Amino acid sequence: MTKTDIIENYGRYILSTYARTPVIFVKGKGMTLVDITGKKYLDFFPGWGVSNVGHCHPKVVGAVRDQISKLIHIPNNFYHPNQVKLAQEIIRCSFPGKVFFCNSGAEGCEAAIKFARAYGRGRRHEIITMKNSFHGRTLGALAATGQAKYQEGFQPLPQGFTTIPFNDIGALKAVIDEKTVAIMLELIQGEGGINIAGKDYMKEIRAICDQKDILLILDEVQTGMGRTGEMFAFKHYGVAPDLMILAKALGGGLPIGALVVKDKIAGTFKPGMHASTFGGSPLICKAALGAFKAIFADQMLANAKIMGPYILERLNQLKEKFDCMVEVRGLGLMIGIQLNMEGKAVFEECLQNGLIINCTQGNVLRIMPALNVTKKQADRALHILEKSIAKVTQHSGNEVHS
Ligand SMILES: *Cc1c(COP(=O)(O)O)cnc(C)c1O
After folding, report:
1. How far apart are CA 290 and CA 102, in angstroms?
2. CB–CB of 338/327 below 8 Å?
């Protein structure tokens, strides 16, 4: 099929739930993607946070290759070593607890919501979530998501969610009542525009949860697997969750989700209360084990801790140059650039120049390169970004000084 055929047939055969960019990628390796015309791109937003270890990392490819001819799937009424090895690895890197495997972030959130309701035993069911949060598109996760634009047209949504402003401890205290069973949030809102939870805020939330027996659910679907320079973002806060949701980068590019529950309350779920046919299959778990190996073998956490601040510093220098850049913020390699204008044109100009970034909330550029990004690659990306912002702002008449 030619490029035109492919795009036309998408129109004919694929439900149009996405605004797609007319680029067809056919190959990927590390930080690089290659499109159908042979053009190469530097990928600074690999898979919306899926490919933290880069495209087709050898540790993931090797793991999949090794497993795929042995056994791809067995149902969850039997045992397999890969599933328990992966659970052990997640627990070793997070907190003492137990894991439920599913296939996506939304499913992980659904599992967390059901768990919280089971924990409330019919007496408490209310879950507090945050404005500008993102938890997925299934109805429960959508009800938890604090953005009306995603909910419009899909009412009635499941009840039992109260959404409050993020980073506002007063707003939280004001809505907690005898029905509250959980507080669910992202430590850094990704889709919401790289909004970072305050350290004191999180400490206060933890204290409230302990005092009132409320579950703290952290959605680490986007912040997890080394994205912020720690394996999980909660490590920056000195605050551990009761429940943690993982997905995106966990499978090294393959689909997997997980709910991690701390030991003390893990018995809330009993046989028959929740399930997933594909959850934690031998193949996917092997791929995820490969992703962990990749992170350790290439010392990606240490690299993210060096390269994140480096990119932030360089972006702050750029900010001095461009009026359109209002704020640069981030943690590790999860970085946002707040603009005072729409970011779409910058995204498009970057793409034209062979750099993939993202634009969220209309005016926040999001940069999340693979965790083994080199200084050379970062410099190249920053150069393209600078050139692209200059071109776009000249066109829009937005002054560029010096
Ligand atoms: C992407 C995302 C989800 C949803 O994950 P899916 O795999 O698309 O269902 C949930 N929470 C956060 C924080 C995310 O970034």
Report:
1. 18
2. yes
Average pLDDT, the chain: 97
Res. 397: pLDDT tops 80? no
Q: Is 45 a catalytic residue?
A: no
Residues 6+ apart with CB under 8 A from 269: 100, 115, 118, 261
Q: What would the pLDDT profile of 87-102 be if each residue is shown by its tens digit?
A: 999 999 999 999 999 9
Question: Beta-carbon neighbour count of residue 287 at 10 Å?
Answer: 28
Strand partners, 358: 366
From the list 95, 100, 101, 134, the catalytic residue is 134
Nearest Cα residue to atom 15 of ligand 1: 222
Residue 402, pLDDT score: 43
Q: Confirm whether 98 is a catalytic residue.
A: no
Token pair listed for 66: 């090794």
Full 3-state SS string of 139-159: HHHHHHCECHHHHCCCCCCCC
For a mutational test of ligand 1's pocket, the pick from 248, 284, 358, 366, i.e. the residue with the most ligand atoms closer than 8 A to its C-beta, is 248
- How far is C-alpha 135 from the geometric centre of its chain's CA atoms? 10
161 vs 392: CA distance, rounded Å: 41
Which tokens go with 205?
């939330």
Ligand 1 in reach of 190 Cβ (< 6 A): yes
**What tokens appear for 197 in the block?**
């939870």
Total residues belonging to the chain: 402
Helix (H, G, I), strand (E, B) or coil at 87: helix
Q: What region, left, alpha or beta, does residue 153 occupy, with left being phi > 0 and alpha being psi -120 to 50 degrees?
A: left
Burial of residue 133 (number of CB atoms within 10 Å: 0-12, 13-18, 19+)? buried
Contact 113, 174 (CB under 8 A): no
Q: Read off the pLDDT of residues 205-260 as tens digits, 9 standing for 90 and up.
A: 999 999 999 999 999 999 999 999 999 999 999 999 999 999 999 999 999 999 99
